[in-house]
C-alpha cells in the first residue's frame, strides 16, 4: 500500500490555509510517526488519507488512484482511522456489536467475522469484555475498543490519532504489541503522537510537521539530531536524548543503555 500527497493544499471554509503544498510518499509496512505541535496540520493531513477531508488543491493518491474517485466509506475499507476521542466512534450496545458492525456492512462472511473477532479481541484485550456496553469501559479500554472495531475491517493501512492519550504503562505496551502485529501481517501503521518516548520506541521513520508543512522526514536518529529545526516545530526530544545532546555526545540515543554505551565510546576516543 502506498499513499502519495502531491502539492497538497487545504483551507478551511473560513479561509485559513492549514496545509501548504505537502509532497509526501508513505508506503510499505514500516510504521510511521507524524509529530509536531498542536496546529501543525498533522490531523488535517492524515484525514486526507481516506477522504474524510478533500484537498483544496493538489492530489492524494492511494496506490496510484486519486482519492476523489471513491467515497470515504469505500476508502475506509483500505485505510482505517482511529480517532483521538473514542466517544466519536462508539455508538452500539456492546463491544461485540461494535466489532461486528463494520464487517457486516461490507458483507464479510460470518465465518470470517467470527475468526477475526477472536484474533482482534485477544490483540486489543477485549476477549472478556465483548458483551459489555462500550460506555461502561474505562477510557483506555474505550480506545482499544475503537482500535478493535477498525481492525475488524482488515484495512491495509491503520491511522492512530494520539493513541497513547490517557493510556497507562500497560496500555502503551499493548499498543506496541498491536503495531508489531500489524507490521507482521503486512499492514502499514501511521500514528500521530506527542509522546516522544512512545514514538522512538515504535517508529523508525519520523515525519515532522510545522505550520502546515513537512520540515523533517527521515529515520528517528537523523530527525532527532536536527535540534535547531526541531526547536522551530516546538518538538522536544525524549529526556535521555536531550541529556545526551547536552553532554555533547555525537550519537543520538533513545535509551539509558544506549546513552551509557555512547558515553563509554566517547571516553575511548
From TrEMBL:
Coiled coil: none annotated. Residues 3-236 form the ABC transporter domain. Pfam families: ABC_tran. The keyword ATP-binding applies. One of its GO terms (molecular function) is ATP binding. The keyword Ribonucleoprotein does not apply. It comes from the Bacteria. Keywords: ATP-binding, Cell membrane, Membrane, Nucleotide-binding, Translocase, Transport. This is ATP-binding cassette domain-containing protein.
Amino acid at each position: 500500500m502506498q499513499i502519495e500527497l502531491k502539492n497538497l493544499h487545504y483551507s478551511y471554509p473560513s479561509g485559513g490555509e492549514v496545509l501548504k503544498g505537502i509532497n509526501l510518499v508513505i508506503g510499505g509496512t514500516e510504521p510511521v510517526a507524524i509529530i509536531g505541535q498542536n496546529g501543525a496540520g498533522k490531523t488535517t493531513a492524515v484525514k486526507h488519507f481516506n477522504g474524510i477531508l478533500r484537498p483544496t488543491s493538489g492530489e492524494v493518491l492511494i496506490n496510484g488512484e486519486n482519492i476523489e474517485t471513491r467515497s470515504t466509506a469505500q476508502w475506509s475499507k483500505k485505510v482505517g482511522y482511529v480517532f483521538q476521542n473514542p466517544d466519536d466512534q462508539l455508538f452500539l450496545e456492546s463491544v461485540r456489536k461494535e466489532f461486528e458492525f463494520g464487517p457486516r456492512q461490507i458483507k464479510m462472511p460470518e465465518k470470517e467475522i467470527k475468526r477475526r473477532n477472536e484474533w482482534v479481541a485477544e490483540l486489543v484485550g477485549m476477549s472478556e469484555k465483548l458483551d459489555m456496553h462500550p460506555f461502561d469501559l474505562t477510557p483506555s479500554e474505550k480506545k482499544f475498543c475503537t482500535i478493535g472495531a477498525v481492525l475488524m475491517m482488515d484495512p491495509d493501512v491503520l491511522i492512530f490519532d494520539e493513541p497513547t492519550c490517557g493510556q497507562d504503562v500497560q496500555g502503551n505496551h499493548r499498543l506496541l504489541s498491536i503495531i508489531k502485529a500489524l507490521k507482521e501481517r503486512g499492514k502499514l501503521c501511521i500514528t500521530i503522537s506527542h509522546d516522544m518516548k512512545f514514538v522512538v520506541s515504535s517508529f523508525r521513520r519520523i515525519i515532522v510537521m510545522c505550520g502546515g508543512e513537512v520540515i523533517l522526514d527521515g529515520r528517528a536518529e537523523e530527525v532527532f539530531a536536527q535540534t535547531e529545526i526541531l526547536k522551530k516545530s516546538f518538538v522536544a526530544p525524549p529526556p535521555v536524548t536531550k541529556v545526551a545532546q547536552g553532554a555533547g555526545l555525537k550519537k543520538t540515543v533513545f535509551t539509558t543503555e544506549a546513552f551509557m554505551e555512547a558515553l563509554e565510546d566517547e571516553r575511548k576516543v
